[in-house]
Amino acid sequence: MEKTYVFILLIASSLFTINSFAHETDTLKCNLVAGTPTIYPAPTLGFISGNNNFLDLEIAQKYGIDTAVTDCAAADSSDMGEVAVWFGAKTLGINDSVRVKIYSVHPTTGAPDQLLSTSFPLAVGVLDTSMTLDTFLMEFLLPAPLILTDSFFVSVVLPVGDIVGVISNTDGQGQGKKLGWIKQNTGVWSDVETLRNLDIDFAIFPKPDAEETVGINDLNDLSNNITLYPNPVSDNLILRLETKQKINSVKMTITDLQGKTLRKSTWTSSEIQKGEKQIDTSNLPSGTYFYSIITDKEQGTGKFVVIE
């Protein structure tokens, strides 16, 4: 069984300034509070903001809510195309995947209510926990632009077989606004301050519509349409992409077991037309690697093994 464990605690505050992502949240009219990045362990297993011995199902961050209670104005009409999440830890068990969900806000309880959208998945193996400034935010693509006109939640659905932990700020830096929520294994949502006695926010950020966002009728998980050979591989890996969709662009990322991004590339027009790309693996040490592919229509992930 492949295992990777990364634990980040009280990282330098210069890396966790939510206001530095203002371009991602300004149109949503919610001013979260910057703070010291932290990941709180659960009592015996995992993390408060991730998989744990409580068997929590999801963690969520609230946006665009009542100004009287939270100092955040109701959201303007805005198209959201992606969600960015800052992961600080992961373990690999059965190589499960992670998705994010968007919910409306219940008018009475203030909890997540109606499901509005679910993102394409990302395999746990491709999640970056290396904390490098250019890659540490993992972007989850929504199947269609989501037009938001009122309060909403953005959640991370916790994997079943693997463990992940999402960065939060430090206890007390949530300023009592109760924007962070947890879905318990009973299916009931509660704010994290009431449930776990921690006044924190989660590093889950909505982002405006992006070029990669696709139409609702084009929703496809591309993972089953990707083949690699040979796998395991020594020198040259051929990745073949088969899809009925007309593709104009393909972006590919390769990461190691720790989630560190090793390569980023854009397929040439001839590679797109041929439907395959040759990858030189001769300079990669023996081990398991993960790839993520995003086209203008679809998204897929998988893994390959390099041997000597």
Which class of secondary structure composition applies to the elements? mainly beta
- Percent range for helical residues? under 10%
Q: Output the number of helix runs.
A: 4
Span between N and C termini? 20 Å
Domains (count): 2
Give the tally of β-strands. Answer: 18
Tell the overall outline: globular
Strand content: 35-45%
Largest sheet: 7 strands, antiparallel
**Assembly form of the protein:** single chain
Throw out a few tags for this protein.
308 residues, mainly beta, 4 helices, 4-stranded antiparallel sheet, 2 domains, 7-stranded antiparallel sheet, Immunoglobulin-like
Structural write-up:
The two termini are 20 Å apart. By secondary structure, the chain is mainly beta. The strands form four sheets. Strands 1, 3, 4, 5, 7, 9 and 10 form a seven-stranded antiparallel β-sheet that branches. It has four helices and 18 strands. A hairpin with a 5-residue loop joins strand 9 and strand 10 (189-191). It has helices at residues 22-25, 67-70, 192-196, 269-274; strands at residues 58-63, 78-91, 97-105, 112-118, 122-123, 137-148, 152-157, 163-166, 180-183, 189-191, 204-208, 226-229, 236-241, 250-255, 261-266, 276-280, 287-295, 299-306. The protein has two domains: 13-208; 220-306, Immunoglobulin-like (Sandwich). The chain is 6% helix and 38% strand. It is globular.
